[in-house]
## 1
Amino acid sequence: MTSMTVGNTTTPRPADGTATGAAVEIDDVAVRFHTRKKDVTALTDVSLRIEPGEFVSIVGASGCGKSTLLKLVSGLLRPSSGRVRLHGEDVRGPRRDIGYVFQRAALLDWRSARRNILLQAEMRRMPKGEARARADELIAMTGLSGFDDAYPNELSGGMQQRVALCRALLHRPPVLLMDEPFGALDALTREQMNVELRRIWRETGTTVLLVTHSIAEAVYLANRVVVMTPRPGTVAELIDVDLPTERDYGRTMAEPSFARATGRIRELLGAATTSE
Ligand SMILES: Nc1ncnc2c1ncn2[C@@H]1O[C@H](COP(=O)(O)OP(=O)(O)OP(=O)(O)O)[C@@H](O)[C@H]1O
Ligand SMILES: [Mg+2]
């Protein structure tokens, strides 16, 4: 198979910034929080345009506003200034056409894996037959077959995150937001989840925004990495990941372009030069 480079070079990007089918558009956004004790500027001058089907990772120091950025896209939070659009539409409130995966799977202990996944359908009043069929498809896709009747306390951390991923994908959201989804997993399980997530992303064609503290994970998964400055967070640099679409985990780690991208990110974050 020939290798294909993804990123700025192959993604059409109009210069005038008009809505032309971008999945996510963030224009000059700032977020200020006013609490009793103090005011915090979480984000400032953030502009970002993400095309449908892109996989974009977001990295930055703790407190730089990564989760805040995802909340803006989901409509859980309104910007203090600037504009956020999803598929050309202004985000004015919580959006139903997204999927969200958090660091903790947040499953209901008293429901089986399958019934946790179907919770999404109940909340959205999806037709039962359609929801069950989609759940079966996702259970197979994420390797949960045989565990769908298990309860969360009978599942490993990795399996619980797979259930959370199935739940987030049940309604076929065009945009999937992931906030440190693998942060609580051991290193080996995390690698396996990375490989699976990349496969699932390719199978579903969903636009993904992934927040992570792992530079290796950010680069392995994405076609672009957004590197943020410390608070108040803004985009320090957009890194195009020059890696083939087919990404064998071990081989990817050994690619010079992988080392270049991770090295640049580490430089920007001012992190130590040891690899993660
Ligand atoms: N609801 C809120 N009220 C007040 N301040 C908030 C609120 N949410 C976030 N903040 C502040 O905004 C800043 C950015 O927070 P955010 O959670 O987006 O950071 P983050 O990059 O996700 O950090 P981490 O990597 O630790 O998860 C922080 O200083 C945080 O304290
Ligand atoms: Mg966060």
## 2
Amino acid sequence: MQPITCIEDLRVLYEKRVPRMFYDYTDSGSWTESTYRDNITAFDKIKLRQRVLVNMDNRSLSTQMIGQEVSMPVALAPVGLTGMQHADGEIKAAKAAEKFGVPYCLSTMSICSIEDVAENTSSPFWFQLYVMRDRTFIERLIDRAKAANCSALMLTVDLQILGQRHKDIKNGLSTPPKPTLANLINMVAKIRWALGMLGTPRRGFGNVIGHVNEVDSRGDLSRWTTDQFDPTLNWDDVKWIKDRWGGKLILKGIMDAEDARLAAHSGADAIIVSNHGGRQLDGAPASIDALPAIIDAVGTEHEVWVDGGIRTGQDVFKALALGATGTMIGRAYIYGLGAMGEEGVSKSLEVIANELDLTMAFCGLRDIRKVTDSVIWKGV
Ligand SMILES: Cc1cc2nc3c(=O)[nH]c(=O)nc-3n(C[C@H](O)[C@H](O)[C@H](O)COP(=O)(O)O)c2cc1C
């Protein structure tokens, strides 16, 4: 096998090793996928100032995100169904993040439960919350995250309703997968994946099964989840969630300066500029393009992070240069997970850290906390 040198290498391997419906679930955006594509191309349009003959020795990528020490300002974003990309995927990703010294955020729609991840890791992780109509279930979920010693709650605010992804409908995506002939042939053909799945009991939504009355079997699950996202979620609920949780709160999915001001007033510890990786409003701008106006709106005393389209360390560097104090990667680590399990997630982090480190040096800096927009090339 050729050496893996970039995230694209992991994506190619991931496509070979994981059944089509789960590959498509990751590698797609809503409707025409224009926002999904723009998230990536917008980074390419930003150019950096190359500096020379400055001391580039002894560099550091270490910094903090919400007061937590991180080996680089990159967290693993919450990704639903991670445990269908690789057996016990959430545990594998959390372990890789822990070893690398970056935060891992577990999705509400994970396959491994909060308790599964807590039992198999020793550093606290973050928990991402989707708010459902069943508020008793949500209260219990928040309490379970507290009991598992999660160090932050990330409330996703851009998914009261679901964006439409054509491929998921055409593939009949469901958890667990429907036993159609096409799905069975595809799953058996991915032998490494199939053996892993046969070897784990974790194949349904771990945070839900057994925790709500209507869902005792996996068959009830798909219906329950689609019916449950609460379209009435609003700013008053943020206050309720903040009070119930009582710890660090991160709001994910802000794309508008006006919403950013409201988010800052809500008392959130960090806000994430995110269009959900181009999976919700197709036609929204790239998240990196939305970042500067949001930073202008909330000021530098608030932590503002960004995700969407980050595939390289150069992308992370550009996000920091435009004022973000942290970033998250979604697909970049899922490609690694599907390709090579925990080792692949570690590889994705190594690739990004190495690129970030060298980019910082090429731009004449040695400390990631010193990056400002002075590194952006503004034309001749
Ligand atoms: C397959 C997939 C599933 C996702 N599931 C969730 C989720 O359960 N909760 C959430 O807040 N965001 C979810 N997201 C969005 C990610 O947290 C993140 O915002 C996005 O992946 C960033 O874009 P990137 O993949 O280009 O890095 C998901 C993204 C993908 C690709």
## 3
Amino acid sequence: MENKKVKDVVCAMEALCPTAYAEDFDNVGLLVGLPQMDVTGILVTHDCTEDVVKEAISRGCNMIVAFHPIIFSGLKKITGSTYVERAVMCAIRHDIAIYACHTSLDNDFMGVNEGMCRALGLLDKKILLPQPKTMYKLTTYVPVDYLEKVRNAIFEAGGGHIGDYDQCSCNLHAEGTFCALDGAEPFVGKKGEFHTEKEVMMSCVVPSHVKNDVVKALLGSHPYEEPAYDVVLLDNANLRIGMGMTGFLPSEMEEMDFLHLLKERFGANGIRYSALRGKKIHKVAVLGGSGSFATRAAIRSGADAFVSADFKYHDFFGAENRILIADIGHFESERFTKNILSDYLCKKFTNFAVCLSNIDTNPINYLQ
Ligand SMILES: [Zn+2]
């Protein structure tokens, strides 16, 4: 069996959660290691500490796929004086590659928040804060007999995908005109003569992470020397990409019962919550990790409860008696992320082992 390289894992991760959808403040993708290196095994972890790097070495894995990026802000020196520098030094010294997905998986419809929804059995899931400026409209003009070829190439490259629908396009019959000048090699018509051609104006949406591939596919399949096309950024929200998610409990619950359900499902031993409202919980908003910035969006969505983490004292006032805020802990809210990553990578790669780290990297302890 052909050896798989670090770059193959990077490609697979890109297919799961494109780095194009990570937040601007983030630092995702391959952080340490050579793309050409053969992979001997992958260790999946929540955080990549020095202990996790050592665990990878002892378990024969030379690649770590982490949720949080160990290098978050820039490193200006690497002397081993911080836990970040020590983890990076240890990885480089032992030829261990490190990949981090973080907000690209947060923003994915099948990512962190979906994991939280699944743990609570939520139904009718929707993205809480759909990401703007992540979709384009592509329009091109194709001679009638070549429409199928060009359109298929565009679809295969990832164009025309809307929610649960694929191969979506609009096709209008039109008449194109051109006059080939000196130096041209026209596919139809004669040089120096005005030409009209029956064409189809074909348009479809293109998610931003495949925009370059789709344009390449268009140019590679179109018969004209100079195909005309427009790529326009859409203002439409992308309903499949964004922070947080909402969904409905299968049946409504009393507030305290709901808080106990959170404790049980997320192993959360330090839940902090805002004032009870005396109302049942049916619609729930979730956001894995630090989510206080989305409280108002959660209220606007009509959710009865907002489950997230890292709320400060004043953030709890933001509930305004319009929602129940439940801070279940940062690590706890993201605890299913490791499994999402390892389940996916296990299915993708059979050449080597994909292991889950045995180290509990949660830096926070709770007094029992
Ligand atoms: Zn986090």
## 4
Amino acid sequence: MHIDLRGKVALVTGVGRGIGREIVTTLAREGVTTVSVDVSATDLQDTSAELDATGTPHREFVCDIRDSARIGEVVQAVDEAYGRLDILVNNAGVVGNGAIDVMDEATWDLVHDVNLKGTFLMCRAVLPIMKRQRWGRVINAASFAALVPIYASGAYASSKIAVAHFTRALAGEVGPWNITANAYAPGMIPTAMNGFAQLPPEEQSRLLDTLSLRRWGDKADIASLICFLASDHASYITGTLIDVSGGKLASQMPRLAYEAAAADGDYDFDAAASE
Ligand SMILES: NC(=O)c1ccc[n+]([C@@H]2O[C@H](COP(=O)([O-])OP(=O)(O)OC[C@H]3O[C@@H](n4cnc5c(N)ncnc54)[C@H](O)[C@@H]3O)[C@@H](O)[C@H]2O)c1
């Protein structure tokens, strides 16, 4: 199976760093013309420099996805420049932690405005182009927190399950135009958002013990899924929430398998910790 995305145009949000930067540079290396959106002008410049190296056409826009007027300008500029927009990846997101009895309203509003309303505003702006061309792929970042919340994630987890349900609602509306809409749920991927890789080794080990594949997720794990979902190979997949968590729900106590493998001499916890 060969994934061929050449000639497509993709808009990806939240590409200044982290998973978003990996997604947009991967798409560019696959020959996709990319449109990058981020709220941070300096981070966007760094991403732009990486995109230069791919040799594929690209444009960058500083844009807060809570700002519907600015989104309108960006999408109009893309339409004028390329006359099409095939793939929309709503990757931008923020966390705002806090137990519910002490959470301030500003945190709640920020998390829901960026993660949920921003996703809605982007979709609303892009759909007329996708409908016109009778082809489109909308791919939205949910989170494993949408499946199982973590402590003090009331705002974040509720925003992400809302993204997943919003995506299903969208899929149910846009099928007649050959547009698919899917969401994905990353598990634990070290980025600036979470700092997993900076945790003390014993803390990292404790978290890895919750994963059947017992390694951190890689940003490329997400970028590969995006390429698949954007391709013709995924043309019959819509309205899903895809778990990309290394098996957080696969087993009640994943460590048992590793202890058994270690007893057989087939797994080395010390070597894994130093990787
Ligand atoms: N890293 C993980 O383990 C993980 C797990 C589950 C879900 N996710 C989701 O994946 C996505 C990317 O996560 P990440 O870890 O790369 O995060 P990150 O914080 O490293 O990057 C987020 C990017 O979004 C941008 N952004 C934030 N608010 C914005 C706004 N209002 N408008 C435009 N851009 C904005 C930031 O400037 C940044 O470049 C997020 O939606 C996140 O919730 C990540």
